[in-house]
Fold this protein.
Amino acid sequence: MSLENLDPLDRELLYELFALGLLEPDEMAEVRALLEAGDVTTIEGLRKASLLTSSLAHVAPEATPPARLRRRLLLAAGVKERGFGWTWVLGLAAACAVLLVITFNIRQDVERREGQIAELRRQLDVSNKLVAQSKDLYDFLRQPSTITVRFGDAQPTPPRGQVFINRDRGVLLFAGNLPVMPAGKIFEMWFVPKQGGAPIPAGLFRGENGQGIHFRPGVVDPSGIAAIAVTLEPEAGSTTPTLPILIAAPVQSE
């Protein structure tokens, strides 16, 4: 084939086919040879053909395939779908709910155990105080200088008990058969001076099941006390005894 013998329109078509790579090998070689030789007509024809073929790519509008078509193609190709499905969301929600329940139960258990520990500590503190008081009272009672005073033995009706007096440590009262303590009332102990004068308040205490224990610590002079008395007073206590006198234990100092 000779390009010189071709019609101009045929030459333009030939150049376009060359630009698209659709010519036969011998035709491609002939056009390439003219191009390498610098043939002006061939160069200009190929330039126009290249512009034409490159513009064909912009003729058809760009389109995005529908999502369902893309999904079908991916599934057909064996590609698994990606993304967050409802199954995954529901599974996550269920897991979160389980975690919330577990966390709530753990918190409840921790709070319950903390309450139990606090209560045990309170009971231990009470026990330690009772042990310490018991040791103090035992030491108080075993002192040789402690004076013992009994009361109520000769009375036809209660109450009865004992009073222990130690010059350096104070006074300890054990009373039984006490009357019922009405609401708003409390027992009060008194020191009745030997030389006359108003009784001296010596502390408040409560009675349960007819029993009462009261310890008034501090230095006390048994020689100046005629008796240890107990009355029933308002809960705030009184500055003077309210009759009747429930207990009157005479004190005889050594």
Observations:
- Residues 85-142 form one domain.
